[in-house]
Write a structure and sequence with these properties.
The chain is an alpha+beta fold. Helices cover 47% and strands 13% of the residues. The strands form 3 sheets. The protein has a 5-stranded mixed beta sheet. Strands 2-3 form a two-stranded antiparallel sheet. The protein has a two-stranded antiparallel ribbon with strand order 8-9. Helix 7 packs parallel to helix 8, helix 8 runs antiparallel to helix 9 and helix 9 runs antiparallel to helix 10. It is globular and about 65 Å long. The N terminus is likely disordered.
Length: 318
């Protein structure tokens, strides 16, 4: 959850949805002015073909409904903007944004164990997550971005033409996002996969294989069993099913790490309190006493979770 004081857009002066659109438009202009390749994802960047629809009647309020009923796309609601940036351009974009009054709220290492995004805030715009990779895409991040970039299209956001993934790319991103959240029944998966044609599914599958997202895609579409034995199988099984036993998820993340060094880093990050996140939450640097208590609380939490997991396993064996 984001601290309330960092909600840059005030609903009293500007609806949050409008602020998010302005943020996308502003980032597109900055990207074009400084030769940064980025793709706008989720939120207002989603193609109308992938949106929910509602039936609308043109009759005035109080009048009898007419036969002229039409389906109208329902805009997505977002609390922030999301962009996927060519990895080699990320530092340049952040530097440019900082010159235009953007500040870093959460660094890459402060976020999820994927360390995929940094969150930035602005005095007058909505917050934005700058993605250098997207969870579920396991291939080389630079090559994966290039694959998505080659098939990009344009969407009009706040009157500004913005680069977005192809509809196939958007289907994949939406499925991976819902899967990571354990929302296998989400309408994004239904619209992007369940209701898709055979040809549309084949295109999504081909793209997933090109960017190394075939396992995460399978997790979101009921085919994960085909990838049993892969290092990241247990992680996506835990994520997609909303595994509640934290030690299981922790072990799955460690096992899914590509190298021993990455595994050790992941293990430490999940067990040790993050001083920067504490600073953001407190609005000041944590004291030595607060840090010490956080370490103790984290250790006690880990012990309780581990005991609960062991106890649960013993109960199942009986």
């Amino acid at each position: 959850m984001r601290p309330a004081r960092f909600d840059s857009v005030s609903a009293e002066t500007l609806p949050l949805g409008v602020g998010v659109q302005f943020t996308h438009a502003a980032l597109q202009v900055l990207a074009e002015d400084h030769c940064v390749d980025l793709l706008h994802i989720k939120g207002p960047a989603v193609d109308p073909a992938l949106l929910d629809v509602r039936e609308m009647d043109d009759a005035a309020p109080g009048e009898q409904a007419t036969a002229d009923v039409r389906s109208v796309p329902v805009p997505r609601r977002s609390v922030d903007a999301d962009v996927l940036v060519r990895p080699s351009h990320v530092e340049r974009l952040i530097e440019v944004m900082q010159r235009h009054r953007w500040t870093t709220l959460y660094r890459f290492e402060d976020g999820s164990a994927f360390e995929h995004a940094t969150t930035m805030s602005h005095p007058f715009l909505a917050m934005v997550d700058i993605h250098r990779r997207f969870p579920g895409i396991g291939g080389d991040a630079e090559l994966a971005f290039e694959r998505l970039w080659r098939e990009r299209q344009t969407a009009l956001i706040a009157g500004q033409p913005c680069a977005v993934p192809s509809v196939t790319g958007q289907r994949l991103v939406l499925i991976l996002h819902a899967t990571r959240a354990g929302a296998l029944g989400h309408s994004d998966i239904r619209r992007s996969w369940t209701d898709a044609t055979g040809g549309e599914r084949a295109a999504v599958q081909a793209l997933a294989e090109d960017v190394g997202a075939e396992l995460a895609l399978a997790a979101g579409t009921g085919r994960l069993h085909a990838y049993r034995g892969r290092p990241d199988y247990e992680l996506w099984l835990a994520l997609s099913t909303r595994e509640h036993a934290k030690p299981k998820v922790w072990l799955a993340r460690v096992r899914a790490a590509p190298t021993k060094r990455a595994a050790a880093r992941t293990a430490v990050r999940l067990l040790v309190p993050n001083p920067h996140r504490m600073e953001v939450a407190l609005g000041r640097r944590p004291t030595a006493g607060e840090l010490a208590r956080a370490y103790v609380d984290r250790a006690l939490w880990g012990a309780r979770e581990l005991w609960a997991t062991v106890h649960d396993r013993r109960g199942r064996r009986r």
